[in-house]
Design goal:
It is a single chain. The protein is of the alpha/beta class. The chain has a single domain, classed as Alpha-Beta Barrel (TIM Barrel). The chain has helices spanning 4-9, 30-36, 42-46, 49-63, 76-80, 101-105, 112-115, 117-129, 143-152, 160-168, 170-194, 211-232, 248-256, 269-276, 288-293, 295-308, 328-340, and strands at residues 67-69, 85-88, 92-95, 135-141, 198-203, 238-242, 260-262, 281-286, 314-318. Helix 2 (30-36) packs antiparallel against helix 4 and helix 4 (49-63) runs parallel beside helix 8 (117-129). The mean pLDDT is 97.
């Protein structure tokens, strides 16, 4: 049976537009909260293949998306490299910051795959549990985004510590980025070997970087990962998401070699259709906060997006992930709207 999402990512759109949603498995679903409550820490939850597979499948049972995205977290990569990573209720991820050469020396690919092996087990479980028409998506964070957490020791609004290391100690920063490129490429390859049909690289903090460092911190590392993954798995589509990159989206596509690009909420659709969609499949981009409100305005916006991007390969998605206060019934209405649309 053909996988409509996989075919669209490869540039072969059909009459119906496929869809999945970033953060489709998450706190807005009561059944997710029930499973999450059975595990003490979030990291333990991510490393529990049975539970991670279960919450990956939950939104498909409700809404019948065309894609299932592996339930995991981008910070499993630094955890696998030996950095101390944990999540605090109410304040999000925390890491022992990487600030010095000695800190970087403690990081290693030795033992990396053993540490994150539960992720590969989850992918393999899902491969056997998913309907044959459903595309299984693996993912990882991009080196720049992951490095911001590693160096800052937490999420931040301006990523000051990472920027300052990048400018002030480019050699040390370069070592972190090179290690992340290699670890991320291997991690994605292992997900593909376990059963992922396609993979997405999330560069959530690609915004507002000067053009000179956008090249060095976003484009070149992403291209290196794409090249390494493609060398081993040439037929697996790779989706890039340089969130809030603005006009840099065009250069991102041209210089990284991704097969598809996820559009954040602020990307103008006419520009995307005329500038990006003749080169790659585009994915997006309804505002997740509009899904919280729901109703006819949400339906109208979904139709506007579908119409604007109907002349090329398009996977319907959000411009960023679902927020916890999203009403499940609004997701049902949105899913039905997309499923019933025809080009």
């Amino acid at each position: 049976m053909s996988k409509i999402l996989l075919e669209t990512l490869r540039g072969n759109p059909g009459e119906r537009v496929p869809f999945w949603f970033m953060r489709q498995a998450g706190r807005y679903l009561p059944e997710y909260r029930e499973v999450r409550a059975t595990t003490k820490s979030f990291m333990e939850f991510c490393y529990s293949p049975d539970k991670a597979a279960e919450v990956t499948l939950q939104p498909l049972r409700r809404y019948g998306m065309d894609g299932a995205i592996l339930f995991a977290d981008i910070l499993l990569v630094p955890d696998g490299l030996g950095q101390n990573v944990w999540f605090e209720v109410g304040s999000g991820p925390k890491l022992t910051p990487v600030k010095t050469k000695a800190d970087v020396d403690q990081l290693s690919l030795t033992g990396f795959h053993d540490k994150v092996d539960a992720v590969y087990q989850t992918v393999a479980k899902l491969k056997n549990m998913l309907p044959p028409e459903t595309t299984l998506l693996g993912f990882a964070g991009a080196p720049w985004t992951v490095a911001t957490y590693m160096i800052d020791g937490a999420g931040s609004k301006d990523h000051a510590a990472a920027r300052q290391m990048g400018y002030g100690d480019p050699d040390l920063f370069g070592r972190i980025m090179d290690l992340l490129v290699e670890a991320t490429a291997q991690y994605l390859c292992k997900q593909i070997e376990a059963g992922a049909d396609a993979v997405q690289i999330f560069d959530s903090w690609a915004a507002a970087l000067p053009e000179s460092v956008f090249d060095d911190w976003v484009l070149r590392p992403t291209k290196a990962i794409v090249d390494k993954v493609r060398a081993k798995h040439p037929d697996t589509p790779i989706i890039g998401f340089p969130r809030l990159a603005g006009l840099q989206y065009a250069r991102f596509i041209a210089e990284t070699g991704v097969d598809a690009v996820s559009l954040d909420t602020g990307v103008p659709l006419d520009w995307a259709a005329n500038t990006l969609q003749d080169k790659v499949c585009v994915q997006g981009n309804i505002d997740p906060h509009l899904v919280v409100s729901g109703g006819q305005p949400m339906v109208d916006e979904a139709i506007r997006i579908l119409e604007a991007l109907k002349n090329g390969p398009h996977v319907f998605n959000l411009g960023h992930g679902f927020v916890p206060e999203t009403p499940p019934e609004n997701v049902a209405l949105l899913s039905d709207t997309i499923r019933n649309y025809r080009r």
